[in-house]
Write a structure and sequence with these properties.
The structure holds two protein chains of two kinds. Chain A is of the alpha/beta class. In chain A, 38% of the residues lie in helices and 24% in strands. Chain A is built from eight helices and nine strands. In chain A, the strands form two sheets. In chain A, strands 6-7-8-3-9 form a five-stranded parallel sheet, with helices on both faces. In chain A, strands 2-1-4-5 form a four-stranded antiparallel sheet. Chain B has helices at residues 46-53, 81-90, 99-102, 109-119, 125-138, 155-167, 185-202, 213-219, 237-242, 247-256, and strands at residues 8-17, 20-30, 35-39, 61-67, 73-75, 92-95, 173-177, 205-210, 222-227, 230-236. Chain B is globular. Classes of the chains: A alpha/beta, B alpha/beta.
């Protein structure tokens, strides 16, 4: 029997309707088609503003999907993210689908250690074991020990991003979405993240990410999907008109 | 695999005041451990709905089934007054916006917490006092304030005391009506943190009414947006707030969050 892809995205479309601006419709992407493979890292490419982050947000249930389907393998079942009940989506986020955003959502008064341990505690891991695992990850990511017990609100961008990465990578989600997790890291720590991604691949995790850094993309991408291919038709038309205009 | 029953199942709740409607045709399910926020402007009917859900107010029509600890779902509106009061005292909590509505201002902090324990049959003074003290600590009220009356407390402390009083009987469902309203921003942050921690630790189900979308984002899994007595949009909290579909929700998000 052929293994089912952990995430199959078919004909996904999205536009925003801005009711406060007279119902202006802003198309985002049209007919997005691709699927993920276990143990492989798929990278969304294309110029900024083309809808890469929007695709990740749609797949995470954070943006509504207008049309098409996104079938995720969740335990023994396949669930369509496009029409999933909120409660089911929360369960999928807890067990199957992880997401590392660009920015850490800081909660006042909660230490970096506890922020990263939280998803493990939700999975029933004891606090002691959870803290040990967090400390290992922090050490790996070169986060200074003096910061571990402080709330990350006052950390630098790079330090916050490392806390964020630790939180996203500590669980064993079979599918992981990465939205530029390395944007504010130095070369040394970028390399650490590359190794962490390699490790996830070996564990059979299907990754989907956005990376603007060419070196990182080269070293981790198994497949690159050009999101420009899914640009809505009227945007494409608009562009070609412009180009024609300039040429003339 | 058996399907999990909702803790609370509300069907077509409507409340009319004469010909004027407070809330209309509201249906939703709340499952154990979920936090749901009801948001909307003042006058949108959210407090009317909360009062109907908590049976403080009888709706004009509709039903609510509540799953008891015995695993049986019963229609709240067909229970006797005594049965409802018992639920209110044991299995439920209600946190009011104004702490003086939920506290007895002229008895000590310890007695405010202990009273709920006595209502569920606890009789041993020493253990009541000990439990009360543990709860005061948990809501960050210093132990030496246990014999002080809440009227000597600050607004934030009163609200934390009200939460302790509600949670001491280990309720499964807590209703909250603008619990952070009227508090300074820093006091609000501390209270939200505390509520969030308790929700995680105790696995509480919460129905919270708030006009503050930031509060809803921080605390709730799901959200219902109300306008003129009706739910006009509902879903995952982050989805509704990041990608609102209805004109009114877009207006709320753009005018409140970016303030």
């Amino acid at each position: 029997m052929r293994a089912v892809s952990p995430f199959i995205i078919s004909n996904l479309s999205k536009s925003f309707t801005m009711h406060l601006r007279g119902g202006l419709i802003i198309p985002v992407v049209e007919r997005v088609n691709f699927s993920l493979e276990a143990g492989k890292c798929t990278v969304l490419g294309g110029p900024s503003g083309i809808g890469k982050s929007s695709i990740l947000k749609m797949l995470y249930g954070n943006y509504k999907i207008d049309a098409g389907s996104a079938l995720i393998k969740h335990g023994q079942e396949q669930v369509n993210i496009a029409c999933v009940e909120p409660r089911k989506m929360l369960e999928i986020r807890k067990k199957t689908l992880g997401y590392v955003s660009q920015f850490l959502q800081t909660v006042p008064r909660i230490s970096a250690l506890d922020i990263v341990a939280e998803p493990l505690l939700q999975h029933g891991v004891t606090q002691k074991t959870a803290h040990e695992r967090v400390k290992e990850l922090f050490t790996l990511l070169n986060l200074p020990e003096k910061l571990w017990h402080l709330p990350p609100a006052t950390f630098s961008g790079g330090e916050q991003q490392r806390v964020n990465i630790a939180r996203g990578f500590i669980t064993a989600h079979p599918v992981l979405l990465l939205d530029e997790p390395t944007a504010s890291l130095d070369t040394k720590n970028r390399q650490v993240v590359v190794e962490m991604i390699e490790k996830k691949k070996q564990e059979g995790v299907a990754l989907l990410g956005i990376f603007h850094d060419e070196d990182i993309r080269q070293s981790i991408a198994d497949k690159i999907i050009d999101v420009s291919d899914f640009a809505p038709l009227d945007i494409v038309k608009g562009r070609s008109k412009n180009e024609d205009g300039q040429a003339a | 695999m058996t399907r999990e029953l909702p803790l609370l199942d509300a069907q077509s709740i409507s409340k009319f005041y004469g010909s004027r409607s407070g809330c209309e045709e509201i249906s939703f399910q709340l499952f154990s451990g979920e936090v749901i926020a009801i948001v909307g402007e003042s006058g949108s009917g959210k407090t009317t709905l909360l009062n109907c859900l908590s049976t403080r107010l009888m709706p004009t029509s509709g039903s609510i089934h509540y799953l008891g600890r015995d695993g049986v779902a019963r229609n709240l509106y067909q229970m006797s007054e005594a049965e409802r009061r018992f639920l209110m005292r044991t299995d439920w909590g209600f946190v009011h916006q104004n702490p003086s509505d939920g506290l007895r201002m002229a008895v000590s902090a310890g007695a405010n917490v202990g009273e709920r324990l006595m209502a569920v049959g606890e009789r041993h003074y020493g253990s009541i006092r000990q439990t009360a003290q543990n709860w005061l600590e948990r809501v960050e009220i210093l132990a030496d304030r246990i014999d002080d009356e809440p009227r000597t407390f600050s607004g934030g402390m009163r609200q934390r005391l009200q939460i302790a009083r509600n949670l001491v009987t280990a309720p499964r469902l807590v209703f909250m009506d603008e619990p952070t309203g009227g508090l300074d921003v820093s006091v609000q942050a501390r209270l939200l943190d505390l509520i969030k921690g308790l929700v995680n630790d105790l696995g509480l189900s919460i129905i919270i009414v708030t006009h503050d979308l930031a509060v809803a984002r921080l605390l709730s899994d799901r959200i219902m947006v109300m306008k003129e007595g009706r739910v006009i949009e509902a879903g995952l909290t982050d989805c509704v707030l990041d990608d609102p579909q209805q004109p009114y929700t877009q207006l709320l998000v753009s005018s409140i969050l970016k303030g």
